[in-house]
Amino acid sequence: MTASERVKIIKAIAPLLEAEEWSVLDLTLRQFQLPTSNQNDSGSKKGYVLDMISGATDEVLLELAAHLGIESTPRPSSIEPSFWLEGHFRVFVSHVSTHKTEAEVLQSCLRSFHISAFIAHIDIEPTKKWQDEIELALSTADALVAILTPGFHDSKWTDQEIGFALGRGLPIVSLKMGLDPYGFLGREQAVLGTEAVDAELAQSTFEVFVKHKQTKKRMAESIVNGFVSSNTFAEAKKNFALLQQAVYWDSRLSAKVNLAGEQNSQISGSFGLPAKLKAFLSQRNPED
C-alpha cells in the first residue's frame, strides 16, 4: 500500500478500537500480533491505539480492518511483479551503482533463506520505465535492506527509496559497510556491521527478519513454502533446519507442513526427517 492508503486504513481502524474496553482492545491487538503496553505515553486511548497499530504491516492492517467490518478497504496492487520469486519473502535492496557487485552477491546468498531480493540494475527489464519499476518493487516488498557504503547518503535515489520504505512502515536492515546509519536509519532499525557480503551476512539478515515483529509471520510463511517444495532429500533437511528457526507459528502452518510430510516423497523419504518433523510439530504451540 502507499503511505496515503495506510493513513486512511489507520484512521478508519482507530475509532473502532478506541470504542472497545481496554481489556478487549489489548486482546484484539495481541491476536493480530500487534504490541500492547502497560504505559500510555500518549495520554489518551486514541493515541494509544495509534501508537500500537502504526507499525503494523500492510497485511495485518488489512486483516484487522476486515475483522472490524471496514468496507472499501484499499488493497495492494493486483499486479504481481515478475521479478519476485514465488512464495519468497520480499526484500528491496537499496544500494549505489558503484557497489552493485555487493548487491548481486547478497541477492544470491539470500535465496538460500527463501528471501527474494530486488536489485534495480538486474531485475528491471530494459523496456520498463526505471522509476515505475522501482516504485512497484517498493510497493510490494516486505522489507528493505540498505547497503551503507560510502556515497550512499549522497545519492538522491537511495534516500528516496529509504523515504518510500519509511512511509510504508517497512522494517529496514542497515548493512554497515563503511558508512554509519544516519537520520531515521539510526533510530530503531537493526544494524549489522560487516566488511564483506557473504553467506554469513545473509544468515544474519535472515535472523533479523525471522525474529522481527513485523516480518516474522511473512518469513515463517516463506520458510514453510520452501520446505513444502523441497526437491531433494538434502534440500528437505536444509529447509527443515530453517523451519526450526521460525519464531512465528500458527495452526495453518502446522497443517501445511504436516501435509507436505505426507505427500512430498523428498521429505517422507529423507532418512530420520519424518521423526524429527513429528517431534517439531508436537512441540509447536499454535498462536491462533
| CATH-scheme architecture of the largest domain | 3-Layer(aba) Sandwich
Strands of the widest sheet, in order across it, are: 2-1-3-4-5
Strand content: 5-15%
Mean pLDDT across all amino acids: 87
> How does the overall form come out from the CA principal axes?
globular
Distance between the termini: 26 Å
Sheet of most strands: 5 strands, parallel
CATH superfamily of the largest domain: Toll/interleukin-1 receptor homology (TIR) domain
What's the CATH class label of the largest domain?
A: Alpha Beta
Class from secondary-structure proportions = alpha/beta
Number of helices: 14
Low-pLDDT runs of 5+ residues are 72-78
> What is the alpha-carbon Rg in Å?
20 Å
Q: Count every beta strand, where a strand is a DSSP E run of 2 or more residues.
A: 5
Helix and strand element order: HHHHEHEHHEHEEHHHHHH
Helix content: 40-55%
Overall structural domain count: 3
Per CATH, what is the topology of the largest domain?
Answer: Rossmann fold
Task: Give a summary of the structure in a few sentences.
This protein is α/β, with parallel strands linked by helices and about 290 residues long. It has 14 helices and 5 strands. It has a 5-stranded parallel sheet, sandwiched between helices.
What does this structure look like?
It is built from 14 helices and five strands. With 288 residues, it is an alpha/beta fold. It folds into three domains: 65 residues, no CATH class; 123 residues, Rossmann fold; 68 residues, no CATH class. It has a five-stranded parallel β-sheet, with helices on both faces. The chain starts with a helix and ends in a 5-residue tail after the last helix.
